[in-house]
Amino acid sequence: MGPFEIYLQRDKYDWYSQGKTYELWPYNEKFSTDNIFKGRRLVIHRGRTGTSLTGEIGEVVVGSLDDVLEQVSFSSIAPTIDTVANFREEVNQLFRNISKYIAFEVILNQKQT
After folding, report:
1. Average pLDDT of the chain to the nearest whole number
2. Count of the separate structural domains present in the chain
3. Is there a contact between 112 and 52 (Cβ–Cβ < 8 Å)?
4. Cβ–Cβ under 8 Å, residues 106 and 23
5. Tell me, what CATH number does 65's domain have?
6. Which of 7, 27, 30, 48 is buried deepest, with most CB atoms within 10 A?
7. Is residue 86 scored above 90 in pLDDT?
8. What is the helix (H) or strand (E) element at residue 88, kind and residue range?
9. Domain with 51 in it
10. How much is the pLDDT for 59?
11. 22 close to 72: Cβ distance less than 8 angstroms
C-alpha cells in the first residue's frame, strides 16, 4: 500500500512548524481505519504547491470529539488556538453535524520541496 496523502491549506500546513503533531478529520470512506493505521507512510501536501512533509502515522483515535479530546490535546491538533472552547467552535464551524472523528499522530521524517 502506498503512502496516505492529504492536502492542507497553507495556514493548516504551517501549523506543523508551530508544534502540530495530530490531524483531525471526520470519519468517512477516505479517513477511516482501513486507510489510516499506525506505521503507514504519510505525505502531507501544502495545497498544490509542490511543498510537502513526509512521515508516518502513529497513534490513531476514533470517536466523538469528546472521545478524541480525552486522549489528544487540542493544541497538538491546532497549536494556534488558545482554548479548548475555541477549538470546539472551530471544529464545529469546519465540520458541521459530525458525530464521529478520526485523529492520528503525525511522525514527521523530513521536509521536501
Report:
1. 94
2. 1
3. yes
4. yes
5. 2.30.130.30
6. 27
7. yes
8. helix 84-94
9. 4-112
10. 98
11. yes
Backbone angles phi, psi at 10, to 5 degrees: -50, -50
- Give strand pairing partners of 104: 23, 60
Q: What's the pLDDT score for residue 32?
A: 98
Cβ partners under 8 Å of residue 77, min gap 6? 20, 22, 23, 24, 87, 103
Provide the grid cell at 73.
490535546
Cell triple for 65: 470529539
- Residue showing cell 502515522: 57
Identify the CA nearest to 27 among candidates 67, 86, 84, 83.
67
Q: Residue 70 pLDDT > 60, yes or no? A: yes
Q: What pLDDT, on the 0 to 100 scale, is given for residue 1?
A: 86
Q: What is the pTM of this model?
A: 0.92
Q: Label residue 49 by pLDDT band (50, 70, 90).
A: confident
Residue listed under C-alpha cell 499522530: 105
